[in-house]
Amino acid sequence: MAGSLGRVTHLATIGLALCAGALACSPQGASGAAGGAVGSVGAAANGSGGTGTAAANGSGGTATAIGSGGTATAIGSGGTATSAGQLGSAGAGGALPDLFDGKVEHSDHARPISGGTLLVTRDGQLAVAADPERDQVFLVDLSTHDVRAVALPPDSEAGRVAEGANGQLFVALRRAGAVAVIDRARASVSANLPVCRAPRGLAFDPTNGVLYVACRGGQLISIDGSSLAITRQLKLDEDLRDVVVLRDGLFVTRFRSAEFLVLNASGAVTARVSPAGAGCGNATVAYHAVGDGQGHVLVAHQSSSAVTVGTSIGGYGASCSGSVVAGQLSLAEPSRMSTTPPPLQPRQDPLDVKQQPLGLQSLTLANTGPFDVAVEPASGKFVAIALTRGTSESGTLRRGQITQNPSDASSVFAWDQTDLALQGEPVAVALDAGGGYIVQSREPATLEFEAGQRVALSDVSQRDTGMKMFYLNSGIGLACASCHPEGDEDGHTWHFSTGLRRTQPLAGGVLSRAPFHWTGELAGMAELVDEVMLRRMALPAKPSAEQVQALGSFLDGIQLAPVEDSADPNAVARGRELFAAPGPACSTCHSGPQLTDNLTHDVGTGGSFVTPTLLGAGQRRPLFHDGCAPALSARFGICGGGDRHGTTSTLSDAEAHDLLAYLGSL
């Protein structure tokens, strides 16, 4: 730990910068004793054995950090110690408080948040809220606030909602492989349309009467709104997320890469652009994209650090943008995009709009995700929400405006710099006919209106402590879900002092894959929480053993996303036999239900690492600990370890094809 407290100095500096004038702040931005403790640790941390004292503003008290381990003492009214006490021994009044007052709650139906589940109909009369945990869609009359519930198939995981013609509503059933058609007048499901294994994005074109469905497997499906028949199916890149109807084509996003595709009317890709990340980060995880009908698309996404990430106390908050993950909102003008954008021109912008390729701009939202966004076509007003969660358990909403630049007729957008606090657990947002916001809360299941009213959707509780911990803002603008969106992984490769490390997946039974981290240094959930949440993420409260168990239970229940049955079943069968054959010997290490022996091996890929699970490997990009393989086929390339990693050099092209078909089916 020698020298590790030097990182806290930087963390304390970040806290001061974000506290709107307060002299001393905790990582959560609160002034007083807790902030004094953190600030003092920063002042005292001069490498191993450093000693020092710093006073907090007002009655917050002082704190002293001694030695590389960090012993913190808070003095004064209400003084508490935070980060230093996590690794050292807390002095008087310095013990970490109990997380959530030690309470533990459990739900059998808690699901990772995907957002984008709220819609206001074109006539402004109805709010439509899909609920993936209660397997219902709620139809709310916006004049009377009467609520009607529509039952969906169990565990179908309702997602995006779109409005068709003649009273039709469409809901993507993410795990049922279908789109539910709801009769608005009767408040009932009139049809379930099989589309693909994992439908995600929905958009209806009222001009042509066509419903578009974007699928995780890369299919972009067109459905006639009258006959409900599939009229076209395109195969694009995998990991599609949202589809937005343009005047002369479509705009499609990819989830983990946050890449934007522009398609013309015939379905050809005419532009492919990724936004620039915040600070020194790369754009990642496109949560939701919406169009305004005027040629603009707003995309709520993240930015992940591309520089070295610290692993000392609060190290995940000491990045170039204040945290290793930042929230962003990008404005795209597809008509101005090209695959060869002009060179960037440097500029200074007080509204934090980062210079982008032509037709693309971004704003940074300093809160944790997932994020959602809504826009009003007529005025260009938009709102974005974030599930920022601390001990107050509230989310935030920020407004913005799209305007036209008179000099070149391009569009620009900017934030209102004031965040509004939201109640509950906000997961989706929409705008009503008057431009007022409506926010859907997961728990309690409600709609919150700008005028202050709240409408209950259901009295069935889905409170779950494990899920609550997973989405908890640790205080440095970061949650577990920031790197593991929807309970899985973000596809990002991080720069650590020990080398490159790709985010590992959580879905599909993670508890059976211990020990954790690529080198297996963390034996189980307790060690993971201590090292990552309490240390690196600087969580200022101590979870109980029962709460750690609840987090593990929630994570262990996250299912893998459905895999498309696109491969030749005969090739899959032959590949399965090769996988178990003595030659390649894949099953020697990739064994058991999780296809891992949970042991550490050096297979020539750059070090000794725990055998990763192969479940879902065909859906992960990139692969290996350092992300060197952009696809499964690169397994046989230079970064695959050669014959130290299974004897594969003797495989024919046909055998390699069969083995890849099997791996892609897992």
Biggest β-sheet, characterized?
5 strands, antiparallel
Tell me the CATH architecture of the largest domain.
Answer: 7 Propeller
Q: In which range does the helix fraction lie?
A: 10-25%
Derived structural class: alpha+beta
Q: Roughly what fraction of the amino acids lie in strands?
A: 25-35%
Structural domain tally: 2
Radius of gyration: 25 Å
Query: Which residues sit in consecutive blocks of at least 5 with pLDDT less than 50?
Result: 1-93, 341-355
Tell the overall outline: globular
The number of helical segments is 9
How far do the termini sit from each other?
41 Å
The fourth-level CATH homologous superfamily of the largest domain is YVTN repeat-like/Quinoprotein amine dehydrogenase
Number of strands: 37
CATH topology of the largest domain: Methylamine Dehydrogenase, Chain H
What is the gist of this entry?
With about 675 residues, this protein is an alpha+beta fold.
Task: Summarize the structure in words.
The protein folds into two domains: 1-561, Methylamine Dehydrogenase, Chain H (7 Propeller), CATH 2.130.10; 569-665, Cytochrome Bc1 Complex, Chain D, domain 2 (Orthogonal Bundle), CATH 1.10.760.10. Helix content is 13%, strand content 31%. Strands 25, 26, 27, 28 and 29 form a five-stranded antiparallel β-sheet that branches. A hairpin with a 4-residue loop joins strand 32 and strand 33.
